[in-house]
Write a structure and sequence with these properties.
Strand content: under 5%
CATH superfamily: MetI-like
Number of domains: 1
Helix content: over 70%
Number of strands: 0
CATH architecture: Orthogonal Bundle
Structural class: mainly alpha
CATH topology: MetI-like fold
Number of helices: 12
Largest sheet: none
Order of helices and strands: HHHHHHHHHHHH
Shape: elongated
Distance between the termini: 44 Å
Radius of gyration: 24 Å
Length: 301
């Protein structure tokens, strides 16, 4: 009798205990199983915070010049030194992070939407629709990314909207292959056939049965696209085809003052280069950790 009472008490106490939030539980698992990915997530969050609140974090103005303090080495008043016009490098890096956040998230979001639309449609319907769209995707993927970006930017001109649309289309069309592969595997599951046999409409099946099951792939694809877009935008800015001046970007800081005054002030090239390396690396390892935790096929490793 006492054993029955004890088991009943334990059951009631377990049922009355507050359930952990799934987001909290997931991040606990992230820190426990993927510590390197967790560090990347923290650095990614710091990058977002600096980009969103650059106006408040920057110690100096965007283009605040002072020729008396030109090419000063890093100090307590200027953590990353100053450039050839006396502008604070740290402030310009923070404002460059703001542009990277805007371009990275908008272009990655547009790329993810394009990948979802093309991947879900082609993967679920198949047949002639799949054949036609995927042959276009094959032709699109044959062009080198950088060459295609240079040609299109040269035609439409540099600017934030143009870069967002071009990078979104570039990575969105190529990324539809990943979504398509996941949808092809999901559409053969029993719950999809059960929904079809009960007369559920195609939009209902796509929204409530297909799309929720590809969301882990979508999340990982979005995080990796953010890093790829930031790197591509930096490459375009380095070539002079990115966001036009006087807006500071990490790529333009590398190609402009960083390359011209690299011997007089090495910090002009090291500061944006290290920031770009750390941010892209952190985003990539965070995306890899999310893939390992969210993909059911990776859980047994």
């Amino acid at each position: 009798m006492s054993d029955v009472t004890a088991s009943l008490t334990a059951t009631l106490s377990g049922s009355l205990a507050p359930a952990r939030h799934p987001v909290v539980a997931f991040h606990r698992r992230l820190f426990r199983e993927k510590p390197l990915g967790a560090i990347g997530g923290i650095l990614f969050a710091v990058f977002l915070f600096c980009g969103l609140f650059a106006d408040f974090l920057a110690p100096f103005g965007l283009n605040e010049t002072d020729m008396l303090r030109r090419l000063q080495s890093p100090s307590w008043s200027h953590w990353f030194g100053t450039d050839h016009l006396g502008r604070d490098v740290l402030s310009r890096i923070l404002f460059g992070a703001q542009l990277s956040v805007i371009v990275g998230f908008l272009a990655a979001g547009l790329a993810t939407i394009i990948s979802i639309v093309l991947g879900v449609v082609t993967g679920y319907f198949g047949g002639a629709i799949d054949m036609t769209i995927q042959r276009f995707v094959d032709a699109w993927m044959t062009f080198p990314d950088l060459v295609l970006l240079i040609v299109v930017i040269s035609i439409v001109g540099p600017g934030v909207p143009q870069i967002v649309i071009i990078l979104g289309c570039l990575y969105g069309i190529a990324g539809s292959r990943i979504i398509r592969g996941s949808v092809i595997g999901i559409r053969e599951n029993m719950y999809v056939h059960a929904a079809q046999s009960t007369g559920a409409s195609t939009p209902h099946i796509l929204i409530f049965h297909i799309l929720p099951n590809v969301m882990p792939v979508v999340i990982v694809l979005f995080t990796t696209r953010v890093g790829a877009v930031i790197l591509a935008e930096a490459g375009l800015s380095f070539l002079g085809l990115g966001v036009p001046p006087p807006a500071p970007t990490w790529g333009s800081m590398l190609s402009g003052t960083g390359r011209t005054y690299m011997y007089l002030g090495p910090w002009l090239a090291l500061a944006p280069g290290l920031c770009l390396t750390v941010v892209v690396y952190a985003i990539n390892i965070y995306g890899d950790a999310l893939r390992d935790l969210l993909d059911p096929r990776m859980r047994g490793r």
